[in-house]
Amino acid sequence: MNTKRVLDGLLQNKFLTLPAYERLLGGLYPLNERAWFSARLLLAGAGFVLAGVICFFAANWQHLGQVLKLALPLAGLLACGLGAWYKGVQNAAGQAFGFGAGVFIGVFLAVFGQVYQTGAFVYQLFGPWCLLLVPLAVLLRNKWFWLMTVYVGAVYWISKNFSWFAPSWPLWYGVNGLFIAAWVLAEVFVRQNGRVFCRFLWVPFSMFNLYFALIERVYSVKEWTFFIFALVFAAAALLYAWYKKDIVLWAWNAFMLAGLGSLWVITLDGVFLCFWISTAFFALASGAVAWAWPRMREDKNNE
Amino acid sequence: MNSARILQQVQASLRPQAKAFLQEKQQTPELSFLLRALLFVGALCGAVLLISASSLHLFFTHSWPRGVIFLVAGWILLHRWRDDGSGRGLFLRQLGGLLALGGQILIGLELESWLRYKYLWLGITVLAGVSYPLFRSFFNRFFWCALAVSLCCYKLIDGGDLGITACGLIGLGLFAAAAGIFIKRLFSFYLLAYALLWGCAWVGGMDAFAHWQEGLLNGVNIVLVVLAGGYLYKALCGKKQRWLGVAAGAVCALVLNWPSVLALAGMYLGHRLRENVLEWVCIAGLAGGLVVFYFSLDISLTYKSLFLIGPGLLMLWARSAYAK
């Protein structure tokens, strides 16, 4: 129950006077001007300085020497490493320094590739970056860092095998394998905020399969393989969401099925029929969410 | 906070009703924002489907019969269902609100041919005034109010021909009206207040593209000077946190333009009133104002970077001194 909204309702229905409302609100959410100003000044100041530094290097990048170009991300990496060592990796600040170190590794690799022209392909940056992130992820033991590592790994594999309008089996196996493995490990190991974490894995995973279904059905060979896989994944996840009483996962997959249904229709009869039927599919998906939510809540309460 | 503490503040004669109200609220579960958004997508698809499908029927050669039907259907759905936390009620209310909005647009399109273009602002304002109490839906209320405010402001500033100070004063007037609604806690008019803030941002945007390209200080006008001066006066005369007032005033004078100053004031107002939505809306407005301001600055990227780093360091210094 959102207490602020309850108080708003009481004032709106004239059960409370405005002074009484302000008193209750003051008790509920005490004003802390110092903390409010401090947080905003810190965020705004850091944002301004960071934006200024980025602008400065963007303006002068061509004129910087190679040593300076390489030294800057290394200095950042060193500073983050020292910060993490000084604060300790179990500490929130130490973890933040660890994240910074992870980002600076990527920046250094990008600059190194640019200075020495190590390769013509973008994916060559993401491969070593992912490998260097793994020991850091083991050290930090932070699930969000692991997520970043999985994302970098996925970007490497996608950019290595990607081709517009032509589904590739190594790409499909690699990305699905990576995300399914990460999903299973997350289900086993991630306890705190596990459901929220798993959504960050599920959303790119299902979007990838939707894209493959799209290029197969609309642009490419018009076979059924990737489309049926995507359909099966979405349907299985829908059942899993029902079992776990996860309404967000349920809603996401209901909309995913509506999207896949629309893809199926568009290849059957073109745009005109697709407009009508896909709109109906999305309305049905929304209705399914409205239908499922009270039932899931009731089941959860009974447990 | 427990119910007993809340009920203590309620008049004795109203306590039983207030208690029943609280119990009802406690039993009603809340839907998450994501779920609400997904239900909105479904309601939007449903409304589009129904309104588009109705155009296929030969009976509806004109827009107005369809408009009337959807208006009535939307009104019934809005008044028949309530957001009881089941999802179904919210879905049908959203569908009702969108159908009513579609109905009004269909009727409006028919009326537009009767109404001469130069009186469009008046017609939309009247429509917003009539439909506001009749259709208690977010889309309906915000859409018409924002449209009416935009058209009225466009009329008032004469398509951008009015001077920078006049634009600032119109923005300040709109902001003051919105702030009055928030301070008085007139919850029924909150959507009007957000529409006024939208109007304020709209005037700021027009002002930016009409005037700010001309030079560095054109974003800074009389409204900024008045607000920064008022704040400085309060900080200096209050003898508390004097240096903070000076630092804040210097930062305002260096980096802000009037829409950003108003957005900053709105942020603080949102914090004081514990209105998170207002605070976030103003944060977005502030970010937008700053981006437009720096984008329109006619100086080299190197100077722009120094112009960003300087205020940034000043803010970090102010924060470190303030935290002591």
Provide a short characterization of the protein structure.
Chain A has 11 helices and no strands.
Key traits:
heterodimer; A: 303 residues; mainly alpha; 11 helices; 84% helix; B: 324 residues
Structural description of this entry:
The complex is a heterodimer of chains A (303) and B (324). Chain A has a domain at 67-162. Chain A contains eleven helices and no strands. Chain A has helices spanning 3-12, 18-28, 33-60, 66-87, 92-116, 123-140, 143-161, 169-189, 194-219, 225-244, 247-302. The model of chain A has no long low-confidence stretch (mean pLDDT 84). In chain B, helix 6 (120-134) packs antiparallel against helix 7 and helix 8 packs antiparallel against helix 9 (190-211). Chains A and B meet through helix 1, helix 2, helix 3 and helix 11 of A and helix 2, helix 3, helix 5, helix 12 and helix 14 of B.
Topology summary:
The complex is a heterodimer of chains A (303) and B (324).
Chain A: H1 3-12, H2 18-28, H3 33-60, H4 66-87, H5 92-116, H6 123-140, H7 143-161, H8 169-189, H9 194-219, H10 225-244, H11 247-302
Helix pairs in contact in A: 1-2, 4-5, 5-6, 6-7, 7-8, 8-9, 9-10, 9-11, 10-11
Chain B: H1 3-8, H2 15-27, H3 33-54, H4 63-80, H5 88-112, H6 120-134, H7 138-156, H8 164-183, H9 190-211, H10 222-237, H11 242-255, H12 258-273, H13 276-296, H14 301-323
Helix pairs in contact in B: 3-5, 4-5, 6-7, 7-9, 8-9, 8-12, 9-13, 10-11, 11-14, 12-13
